[in-house]
Amino acid sequence: MPSVKAIKQRIKSVKNTSQITKAMEVVSATKMRKAQQFALSARPYAVASLEIAENLLSHTPINLMPPLFGEREIKKSCVLVVTSDKGLAGAFNANVLKKAEVQINQYKVLRRPYILITVGKKAKDYFEKRGISPTKSFWGYGDYSTMTETREIADTLIAGFQDGSWDEVQTVYMNFRTTLLQEAVAKKILPATQESIREAVTSILPEKGRFAPTPTTYNLQPTTFSYDYKFEPSPAEILESLVSQLIRMHIHHIILESNASEHSARMVAMKSASDNAKDLITDLTLTYNNARQANITRELTEITAGKEALES
Predict the structure, then answer these.
(1) pLDDT tens readout for residues 181-207
(2) Collapsing DSSP states into helix, strand and coil, what is residue 137?
(3) What's the chief localization of this chain (predicted)?
C-alpha cells in the first residue's frame, strides 16, 4: 500500500486536475452556444437568398443554368476534411478521420484520382503521417470563423470545380445535431443542386435545444411563385453569383457546425473527466483513511508492546 503522504499528494493532484477540467467544461459550453449563434445570425440572409434563387431557377432554361449546377462525368474528386486544431475533444477528430478514410478507400476501390484538402491541424497531421500530403491545408480559424475567413476555402473549391481540376467536391465533417449528439457525415457540395442548397439552409437550425426550430423561426416551406423579379444585367448572371454565394455560405456553415461540435464534444469529455476525478478522489480518500488508520493501529500496537516489554 502506498504511504499516507503519497496518497495525500495524489488526492491533491487529482483535485487540481478536476478544477482544470471543470473550467474547460464551462468554457466549451459557452463557446458552443456562441458558435450556434454565429451560425443562426446568417439564417435570415440565407432564407431570402434561397427564395430569390428558387424563383430564378424556376424561370431559367436548363442551358442557362450556372456552371456550379453542371453534372458531368466524374474523373477526379476533391475531398474536404474538416477537423479541429486542438485535441481534448473526445472522439471528435477520430470519428471524422475514420469517416474520411472510408470515403478515400471508396475512391481507391473505384481507382478514381482524388485531391485532398484539409481544414484543421489534426487532419493535416493525420494524413501527413500516413504519407498522404494534402494539396492545400487551412487552419487557425479560431472558435468563431467569419465569412471573410472561410471565403478562401470556398473560393478554392469553386475555382477547382469550374476550371476542371476536379469534377465533384465531397466534404467530411462533424454534423451538429444536438448538444449531446454529433455525427460524422460525408456530403457532396459540388455540383450543387436545388435540393442540396435548400438542405444547407435548413440544417442551420439544430434538431433540439435552445436554437431548435419553432413556429416563429425562419421555416422553409415549398413556395409556388406567382411573381417575377426584374434583374440587371441578366437573371443568368445574377443566379450564377447568387449560387456561388450560397455555396460559400454552405461551406462557412460547415466550418461553424464543426466548431460547435468540437466545443460540444470537449464539454462532454471534460464533464466525463471531472466525474471520473470525483470518483477517483472518493476512492483515494477511502484508501487514505485506511492507510492512516493502519498506521495508527500499528503505532498503538508498538506502544502497547513496548510497555509490556518494560513491565516484564
Answers:
(1) 888 989 888 888 777 777 776 666 555
(2) strand
(3) membrane
